[in-house]
Amino acid sequence: MPPTPRKRTSPRGRRAGPPRRPDLTAPPASVRIAEFAGAALGVWLTSDGLWARLFGVYLFPAGWHSLWKAWPAVGASDPNDVGWLLVVLGASWAGALIGLGMGRRWAFRAALALSLAALPTLGLGSALAAVVLVCILAPASRAWIRQREGDA
Q: How many CB atoms lie within 10 A of CB 127?
């Protein structure tokens, strides 16, 4: 005769309810697309900034940074001058994307600010920044972040 199964009980001796399920609400596709485009933009900016700092030339065509070079505050006729700006902007995407994947409102604001700052890169950088802007401002993304913040 097989042994009878034991009933699960809580530490107080009462019968335990069903196990709690983890929160499996996955982010909408717009958040995933924004994460992918933001990661590509972050890697591109960081690698281009490091290349400019190490070797004095841009990894990608220098015309892609022409608007940043025209800013008087940056005043960058030399790639070394813009290198740190690119490294900081590119590396900042890592924290923003981790927070965005967790559905945090501060990460939504950070991704918004970083994508606005990356718009003047022209070419591929502007396209990726525009994709991030459109995706994080989509109603599904905003509703998911609002719902996730309410859970915390």
A: 14
Query: Which residues have C-beta within 8 Å of that of residue 77, sequence separation ≥ 6?
Result: 69
Question: Could you tell me the residue ranges of all domains in the chain?
Answer: 29-151
Q: Distance (Å, rounded) from C-alpha 147 to C-alpha 42?
A: 27
Per-residue pLDDT of the chain in tens (152 residues, 90 and over written 9): 667 666 555 566 556 566 655 555 788 999 999 999 999 999 988 888 888 888 877 776 655 555 555 554 555 556 677 778 888 888 999 999 999 988 899 999 999 999 998 887 777 888 999 999 999 999 999 999 888 876 54
Q: Helix 29-55 vs helix 124-136: angle between axes, to the nearest 10 degrees? A: 150
What distance in Å separates the CA atoms of residue 137 and residue 139, rounded to the nearest whole number?
Answer: 6
Q: What is the pTM of this model?
A: 0.74
